[in-house]
Predict the 3D structure of the following.
Amino acid sequence: MTVSLAGNPVTCDLPPLPVLGRDVTVPLVTGGEVTYAALDYAASAPALQRVWDDVAAYAPYYGSVHRGAGYLSQLSTELFEQSRATVAGFLGCRPTDEVVFTRSTTDSLNLLAAALPEGTQVFVFETEHHAALLPWQRAKGARVTCLAAPRTPEQAVAALDVALHGAPKGPKLVCATGASNVTGELWPVRELAAAAHRHGARIVLDAAQLVPHRAVDIGELDVDWVAFSGHKLYAPFGAGVLAGRPDWLRDAEPYLAGGGATRTVVRRADGEVEAEWQESAAARHEAGSPNVIGAYAIASACKALTEAGFDRLDEHEAQLLTLLRDGLAEIPQVRVLSLFGADADRVGVLSFVVSGWNSSHLAAALSAEHGIGVRDGLFCAHPLVKHLLGGRPEDPGACGSPEDLSFNAVRISFGAGTPPEHVTRFVEALATLVREGASWTYHTRNGRCVPAPSA
Ligand SMILES: Cc1ncc(COP(=O)(O)O)c(C=O)c1O
C-alpha cells in the first residue's frame, strides 16, 4: 500500500494483526461520520480479532476454576493453568519462576510492594508511571529513593549504580520501566538489571508499554519480575500478570485473604479463626475465583504476537513512526517530548505539545472534528511530563480549559492493528488545526475539554 504525506509517497504494509473496531464510524461535531482512528493504544489497545474469537469459542465452556467437579470446571481449570504456562513461555520464564494472574500492572506492582521483606530499600526514577512510582511508599517499613530524570540511558545506569553503592545493607528493589508511556523511549533494562544485581538488589520491570511492542525475555534481560496488563496487550478482559521469582511472594502474607489462597481454615477453641495459606506464589496471591477469561485472553494474545513475529511487528511500527515523525517535522509549532533525544530507540508512543495550543483543546478537536482518538494530559506520569515541559515539581498540571495553557501534552500511540492511513490522517488533521484553528468552540465540562453545544 502506498500513502502520501506532504507529497512524499511512503510504502507501508497492512497491519500485521487484525483488531476489533476497524470499521467503527463516529459522528463529527461538524456533521457526518468518519471511520474512527484509534491512536491511543498506550492507554488501552483494541482487542485482537484472534483474542475475541478465542474467548468467544471458549465462552460456552466457561466454568469455575480450581473448585468444581464438573466437566466444564475441569476444562476451565485446565485452560487457566495452560494460560499460565503460555504466559511463562512468552516471557521466557526460568524454571523456578511463577506467573501470578492479577488485574493489571498497577495490581501486580502493588502485590509486589505488599510482599517486600521488612525494611526493603526501593529505588525508582521520577520518570515512572504512577503505578510504578507510588506503591512502594505504602509498603511496610520500606524506604524509597526517587532518582532524578536522567538525560541519557547511560546516565540512568550510572545514577542507579551510585545510589545502590551508597545504600546500607538489607533487601533492595529497583523498579524500572521498559518503555516510557510518555515518550515511548526504551530504557536500558539489561544494564539496569546488571547494576541492580551488582549491588545485591532485585529488579522488577514495568513492561506495560514494552510487552505489546517488543519480545521480552525475563531470563535474557535478567530481571527478577515482569509486570504487565492484558488490556494493553490486545486482551481487554481485566487480567494482568506478575511473573518472576517466587520467594518473596511465598514468604509474604496473601495479597487478599479468602478462598483459594488457603490450605485449611479452623476455628480455634478460643474463638479465633486460623488459616494455613497456600505455599505457591500463584495460589497464595490469587484468592477468590480467578479471572479465567482474562487469563485465557492474555495467553491468546501472547500466541498471536509470537506467531506474527516481533520482527514483523517492529518493522510495521517503525514504518508508522517514520510516517509520524516526518509528518510532525513539517509542522514547526510541534515540539516532541523526549528524555533521551531524537535518535533514541522507541516504541509506537509519542507525546508532543503545539505552541499556542492547550493540549486538551487539541485532543478534543482531533476527536470531535476528525474522529481521531488520542490522549491528552500528564499520562499518570506527572513528574516526568512536568520535567519534560520545563515545569517545577509543584506546578499544577491537568486537563484544563481551552484557554488554560497548563502543563499537559498530547500523546499518540499505535501498534499491531494500526493501518498507516490512521497516522497520515492524524498528521493531516493536526496540520489543518494548527494552520486554520478549530472550527468549533470548546468548553470544559466535568474536567474535560469538550465541544460546546451548538447555539
Ligand atoms: C508504563 C506503565 N506502567 C503501568 C501502567 C498501569 O497500567 P494499568 O492501568 O493497566 O494498571 C501503565 C498504564 O498506562 C503504563 O503505561
Observations:
- The chain has two domains: 2-47+310-451, 50-307.
- The CA atoms of residues 313 and 425 lie 21 Å apart.
- The chain is about 35% helix and 20% strand.
